[in-house]
Amino acid sequence: MSLLEVKNAAFAYPAFSETFSDVSFTVRKGQVFTILGPNGAGKSTLLGCLAGLNKLSAGQILLGGRDIGAMSRRDIARLQGFVPQTLNSVYAYSVAEYVVMGRAPYISSLRRPTKEDYAAAFEAIETMGVGHLAARSFSELSGGERQQVAIARILVQNPQLILLDEPTSALDFGNQIKVVKMVRELSQKGYSVIMTTHNPDHAVMLDDTIGILDGGGHMRVGTAAEILTEECLSAVYHTEVKVSYVEKVNRNACLAVF
User: Fold this and answer.
1) Residue 50: CB partners within 8 Å, gap ≥ 6?
2) What does the record give under GO molecular function (predicted)?
3) CA distance 121 to 131
4) What is the distance between the alpha carbons of residues 31 and 50, in angstroms, rounded to a whole number?
5) In the prediction, which pLDDT does 222 show?
């Protein structure tokens, strides 16, 4: 059984035409599903639907074999973690406090986090390489630092499926590669990951399943060899794209003609 199954999904905001329609795909344990597409194609909206935050106008999403629309937030959080693009904190929580909140699905409303919960939080913080920020206020962090800390919070949640909405958008080049490597390592440990990105090369590096949303809200699903072609990328992004094999790094690279 697939961990996540999306069947003929469609979404439309009130009084607007559909953002996307007839989207179908499955995600199994340990799979990385990378979602590409231009601005406004509906990538973030689709991820919100997968997280149970947006309600489909048609179709169905099954998480662990259950209709996500009938699941409680706690039940969803025990199977799935979501890192949105925009990360704000109203209160001046420290990084350690912010990350330990990822244990919430396993802590009753009357119980405080235990030493074990904090130990798991600090381990996740170190895994993301932001241990030096543990005592800092989350609200004082840069956009890139917040993204790294938010991923640590998801790791401490220990879900089976991790949703990342453009996790590299606020990061410098080195940290972008670090996140891509981390996604691959998570999949090797058995986690399933769905990640949106604007960079086709990230999908090449991850070398798994890709879904590409076009400007009309339709998704094409396949492997990198099937999806990341010059014809497909040029049509979706409305610019001439060349795909070339780079021997020094032993993979293809997607290059815009300038």
Assistant:
1) 4, 6, 61, 68, 80, 163, 194
2) ATP binding; ATP hydrolysis activity
3) 10
4) 16
5) 96
- Give 99's contacts (C-beta < 8 A, 6+ positions apart): 121, 124, 125, 149, 152, 153, 156
DSSP characters over 143-170: HHHHHHHHHHHHHHH--SEEEEESTTTT
Run of H or E residues at 107? none
pLDDT tens digits, 7-23? 999 999 887 788 999 99
**C-alpha distances in Å from residue 145, one per residue of 47, 136, 168, 170, 256:** 22, 11, 11, 9, 29
Q: Give the side-chain half-sphere CA count within 13 A for 119.
A: 3
The domain of 8 spans 2-256
Instruction: Using the predicted structure, report yes or no on whether residue 175 has a pLDDT greater than 90.
Output: no
Sheet holding 219-223, edge to edge: 80-83, 161-165, 192-196, 32-36, 209-213, 219-223
Tokens of 212: 């590409």
Evaluate whether 217 touches 210 at the Cβ level (below 8 Å): no
**pLDDT at residue 90 greater than cutoff 70:** no
Q: What is the pTM of this model?
A: 0.90
Tally of structural domains, the chain: 1
Domain CATH code at residue 240: 3.40.50.300
Give the pLDDT confidence of 116-126 residue by residue, as tens digits.
999 999 999 99
CB-based contact 220:211 (threshold 8 Å): yes
